[in-house]
What we know:
Layout: H1 12-28, E1 33-36, H2 50-60, E2 65-68, E3 71-72, H3 78-92, E4 96-101, H4 108-111, H5 116-121, H6 124-135, E5 161-164, H7 168-177, E6 181-183, H8 189-205, E7 216-220, E8 222-223, H9 227-245, H10 264-277, E9 280-281, H11 283-297, E10 301-305, H12 312-334
Helix pairs in contact: 1-12, 2-3, 3-6, 7-8, 8-11, 9-10, 11-12
Protein name: LLM class flavin-dependent oxidoreductase
Keywords: Monooxygenase, Oxidoreductase
Domain Luciferase-like: 5-298
Amino acid sequence: xxxxxxxxxxxxxxxxxxxxxxxxxxxxxxxxxxxxxxxxxxxxxxxxxxxxxxxxxxxxxxxxxxxxxxxxxxxxxxxxxxxxxxxxxxxxxxxxxxxxxxxxxxxxxxxxxxxxxxxxxxxxxxxxxxxxxxxxxxxxxxxxxxxxxxxxxxxxxxxxxxxxxxxxxxxxxxxxxxxxxxxxxxxxxxxxxxxxxxxxxxxxxxxxxxxxxxxxxxxxxxxxxxxxxxxxxxxxxxxxxxxxxxxxxxxxxxxxxxxxxxxxxxxxxxxxxxxxxxxxxxxxxxxxxxxxxxxxxxxxxxxxxxxxxxxxxxxxxxxxxxxxxxxxxxxxxxxxxxxxxxx
Length: 343
């Protein structure tokens, strides 16, 4: 999972070049997927279009699947997003994956969308329009019934669509539509398991089929032989997360609750939580925690954030150690079930 994070002293071109290099190395190492994020008006995360970056990475690779984590759907036309999804599906030979969510209630909803009301309204309406368009139902207006996507998706109903979920409402929405969940780094393995259980209860009550693809989750993943290095990196990540959530672009008027401030105490608490739950540390620690997350949550698509270090060579070294030392251990420990695991 590549978030195009910009560390102090880095230029935009450096960050984007690193993103491409890491994606290409992931393919060389035989990994399944690369996922890219979307952030607006931030100086520390430099990709405002997950779809555009995904398209570029698909063109730079041959076998790797590339997904968006996520396309902030309420900020985009659902039908236009469906058009772009179908185009990438065709161009890539079926290697594109679409993740959608509503993101944060930031100023992008004023500048790109229709204000906070669109964020509060949630994903249901734009998601349904997107799914209908991918099925070929571009408009509910009978006068436009002949309108179709051009090009259409390769194989209906199109590429896998994941729903980023952080609340019961979004979990139930995904279950109602038969779409897999995408869960992020703020959730422990146990919290992920509870969310998947809620999904299953709601799905079964509604008589919905199982999703075609397994649920996905994101974690920080960093191999560190020195515990002090691990602590330093997670301390930096904790400060980055809190700073990001307190950035002026994220604080839209009338937001329900303010995020925790960036203080030494809050940074320390978050760093402790990351150190205790994420696959960060020795090879054995990383393997044990990844195995625990997969077994406990029941999710089978794993998105590892590998960019904690600022230097590209360090990021590539971490990626290689994960691919050659950690992931084989995880697959071995999961046994036959590992055939379904995508990393």
